[in-house]
Every structure is written in C-alpha cells, then in structure tokens.
Design goal:
- This protein has 238 residues and is α/β, with parallel strands linked by helices.
- The longest helix is centred in the C-terminal third of the chain and has 29 residues.
- The N and C termini lie close together (7 Å).
Length: 238
C-alpha cells in the first residue's frame, strides 16, 4: 500500500475524487481514506498544516496501514531564483530550516546530538516521479527539477529570508511539512519523496500569490502523483 499525504484539502481532493472502493477511518482526528487509485492500493490523508501534524500522519500511516512508501504532495514557495509559479520540485533531500541551536555551536537546520539532519529521498521514487512527469503534456511548459525541500512552522514571505534559505541552507523550495515526513520515514526506514508545485515565490507577494495559484499548483501535484501510480503499477512496484 502506498501512502499519500497532503496538508490541505485542496492538495488531495482530486485524488479522492478519482479513488474507487474507498473506506474511511478517523484516527487521531484525521480521516484516512483507503482505496484504489490508478490500479494501486493507496491510503490518502490530509495531515493538517505544520510539521507535527505531518509527522503524526506519516507515523500513523506506517503503523496503522503498513505503507511501503510515502509520497507527500502539495504546494510550496520557490527559493531557487530560476523557479517560477507552477514549476515543480521533486525532493532529493529534506531539512527543517527552523531548528536553530546556533548559540550552542550547531549550524542552523541541525538537530542537536542527532547524526543526521538532512533526510535523503528514495532515489527510485525520485526517478519514477521524473519519468512520470515527462509523460504529462503540461510539463512541457513548466520546469520540473530535483532539489532540496526546506520545512518550517512559518509561512515565508520575506525576500531576505528567501535569499538566506537558498544561499545558506541550499534550499530550492520552502513549505511547512515535508521534512517532518522525511524525518519520520528516515528513522522508520520507509522510502519517501516530496513533490511540490510552486504556488508563490515566498516573497512579499506570497500571501496574494498563494491564494491565487494554490489550486492550480495542487492539481498539478495530484496529476503527477497519479501518473506515478500508473508507472508503479506498470513496473509492479508495491
């Protein structure tokens, strides 16, 4: 069973509309919907916004549904200067940018006394995402690239912070959940990938752009993950 998580309703509603033979269960206040999508057995949930909500949903999927991999989808703010609204990032690694124990001598983004703070995505899932993207017509007009996803419990709308996160932490996009899912998956040995479509550029215009472009960005994420499931079924990935 493949686990699929989005933080908001808009990020998963297209998937839910296309699922068959669905069953729903409320766990810790969230609805987990299982069923068939693109010939694959999946579990889908809306985690809610923020790292703790995302981590709880990922752990629940692993423990309650024995998922073999997790795909986190949705929208993000662009950090890389070459990314525009509508472009997409497939994660190669995730990191929590708001962990800051620098006064104790730890670089920002480092979890103190933990061996790893940058969580690598599963290379096979990354390649499946890229191959699937190449088969979608609308991807001819947008940039889809691999990159580093940064996560923190804040909505970024400051150009100077954008520059810092890109230059100092090498982030390509920023959001509020992906690294928490990656954190859980790394320590539970579950393959994961985060797929984010840019809804804004994380600058002063971000609040307006987020509202305006979130639906389009979310639809593209859903279409890409559906294409991935078709490819996984074809390759007999379980």
């Amino acid at each position: 069973m493949i686990g699929i998580i989005g933080a908001m309703d808009v990020e998963i509603e297209q998937l839910l509309r296309n699922m068959e033979d669905t069953k729903s269960k409320n766990i810790y206040g969230n609805q987990f919907i299982t069923g068939i999508l693109a010939n694959m057995t999946v579990a889908v949930t809306k985690s809610g916004v923020g790292k703790v909500n995302a981590a709880l949903s990922a752990h629940t999927m692993i423990k309650e549904y024995n998922v073999t991999s997790i795909i986190f989808i949705g929208v993000a703010g662009a950090l890389h200067p070459e990314l525009n609204i509508g472009d997409m990032i497939v994660s190669t690694v995730c990191q929590e940018h708001d962990i800051d124990a620098s006064t104790l001598g730890f670089p920002r983004g480092t979890v103190p006394f933990q061996q790893i703070s940058e969580y690598p995505a599963d290379s096979k899932l990354v390649q499946i995402a890229l191959k699937s993207a190449s088969e979608l017509k609308w991807t001819e007009s947008v940039t889809i690239r691999t990159g580093k996803v940064l996560s923190g419990d804040q909505f970024i709308s400051d150009a100077s912070l954008v520059e810092f996160l890109h230059q100092e932490l090498a982030g390509d996009c920023v959001e509020m959940e992906g690294a928490a899912v990656a954190h859980v998956c790394y320590f539970t040995n579950i393959p994961y990938v985060v797929i984010r479509s840019m809804s804004d550029r994380a600058d002063q215009e971000a609040p307006v752009d987020f509202v305006k472009f979130t639906e389009l960005a979310a639809i593209r994420s859903c279409e890409l993950v559906t294409s991935m499931l078709h490819q996984m079924h074809k390759d007999r990935v379980v």
